Amino acid sequence: MAHQFPRTTLEQWRVLQAIVEYGSYAQAAKALFRSQSSVSYAVARLQEELGVTLLSPCGRKMCLTPCGEALLHDALLLLEDSLYLEQRAQSPAGLWEAQVNLLVDMLLPRAVLQTALRSFCSQCPYSSLQLQEEFNGNSLSLVERGQVDVAVLARVPNGHSGQPLMHSDSVAVAASSHPLCQNIHALGSHELKKYPQITLNHMASLARPRGHAPLPGNLSVSTLGSAVELVSQGLGYAWLPEHAVADALAKGTMRLLALKSGQRRSMELYLLLPAGERSGPASRVLAQALQAAV
Fold first, then answer.
1. Is the pTM of this model over 0.85?
2. Which residues are the signal sequence here (predicted)?
């Protein structure tokens, strides 16, 4: 089947837009730096190709017919898309990625992430960003499958290199009304075992000694928000990222547990560009924005 090509041109639609915008053929010709005859001819050809009347006299001005109004509305979308392509081609961003896939561990403070994203959006207006936050251990496989352009992770997958970005602290907390917060003595493992511990799926293995099964009654959830909510409701204690519970600690609805040891756990977060030297310019801008935000 032969390909069909449009009989009208974007130039003809731009001329029609100018006539409506400036009110007459003469004014449109002046604005477009063209002769009035060429403007008239462009609209005449447009109407001839479409087989419809687009303009009609309206006093001293030329106004769109109902059909012309509907068609020009759609044509303006095409003009905007064409202008976007030209602007992109004329800028360095014309060679940049259309989309950057970012994967971050929930340990990354929200303030750091938001600052980096604002910087990225201002520097890369032609690149969209797909953000994914991982809590269930699938992050390493996503990197290994080449589905991530930039990553901030607590572990570096085999075969990849990561640059230390920052330390992120998790703290032992419980609701202020929880029995563990009423104890005046420093808490040890014996006291903690009496109550459910809430863990994120991907941190569950880090929360217990190697070779030990999960303790009965413990709760494992897949999102940071769920963990914070369950702790707030007094359903258990947890080690949670300090940035996620800072407001609750400040308001007094949560308290740090007075542990004999291990109240604070620090982990290194690493910045990865999985494609290495083949990483695109937008990916590099995002990586630099993350570094600057720390």
1. no
2. none
